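Follow-up to my earlier ticket, as requested here are the two runs.
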Amino acid sequence: MFYRDERLALFIDGSNLYAAAKALQFDIDYKLLRQEFRQRGRLVRAFYYTALLENEEYSPIRPLVDWLQYNGFTMVTKPAKEFTDSQGRRKVKGNMDIELAVDAMEMAPHVDHIVLFSGDGDFRPLVEALQRKGVRVSIVSTIRSQPPMIADDLRRQADNFIELDELKDVIGRPPREPRDASDASGSAAAR
């Protein structure tokens, strides 16, 4: 479904892709992901969208965001909004759908094929609009999780559906060996 000479752009809905990979019990190696799609076409740009908690002392996603930024990904971030719901639970909201949609429409004249890493059904009208502009759209998500992580109408609208589980061996990070106490103290001494 890919042509070697086509101009390709990746649009990664960070939280959606993270949730889908977790549901399939693997971590994504973004270096391998970029390499894989470079082999499938002429990769013009790889966008990654995520909301960040700005007021946190340490954000667990910050090292990933920094690594992606230094390794060829175009990072699109905005501050997440923190609130307390009616049950008194702390919630975080940071929807990046509009930013992704605007960027995809702006990129449409410069690419032949867009790969959207998301199963969010809200993107169905975006996919339809991109197709009207002559851009082929592939969706990467999963139907193999319980429940499936892709909206059926999004899958039907796409030119191509790529099952994330089938990419696991290609873009998955190998599981890390658990550190034991002797290893941790030995490596600290070596520093």
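Run two:
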Amino acid sequence: MRDVSYIAGQLRSADQREVFCQLPADVSTGDIGHICTRPGTSFVAYWKGRPVMVFGFDAITLAGNALNAWAFGTRDSCYIMGDLTRWVVDTLLPDWLSNGVTRIEARSIASHSTAHRWLKTIGAVEEGPLTGLGRDGEDFILFAWHRNRLEQTLRLVGRFTETFKDVHVETENCETKTVANRTKAR
């Protein structure tokens, strides 16, 4: 929770706008740490020993076949995106596909072009606007991967991330850790 609270206190500006407009006005960075650290739903990525990004996935349906993806980070999160992308593609997506996930959604504030580019790079399809989703009427865009698109993403991103061959994945005490270029997600 400490690392997530640290990230929440150091957010890059686009992430800050996206995160805080979805929460009550009186939420603190400590509250965000508590919200984002439910067991089994969130991961923290590190760069040079510092937490730089938190991301997670929550079930949308009771069947667990549809997930909501979310992420936010500090200015330094750009340094771990290649390694993080490979870890998600090599570890999480195959597990979800084998466990029956048919859809993953991500909502991004309309002004966050960096997030939109990354989502599209890893195979998300822009499904349309979500008008007035933010607390003060901010518009969002819904992105999604469908099962067939997830399989295609595995193939495409697998080729894209071939340059990150030094990624090492290990599981310790029910936490998955990925270490590459001094980066780890757990």
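The only thing I checked on run two: The two ends are 12 Å apart (CA to CA). Let me know what else you need.
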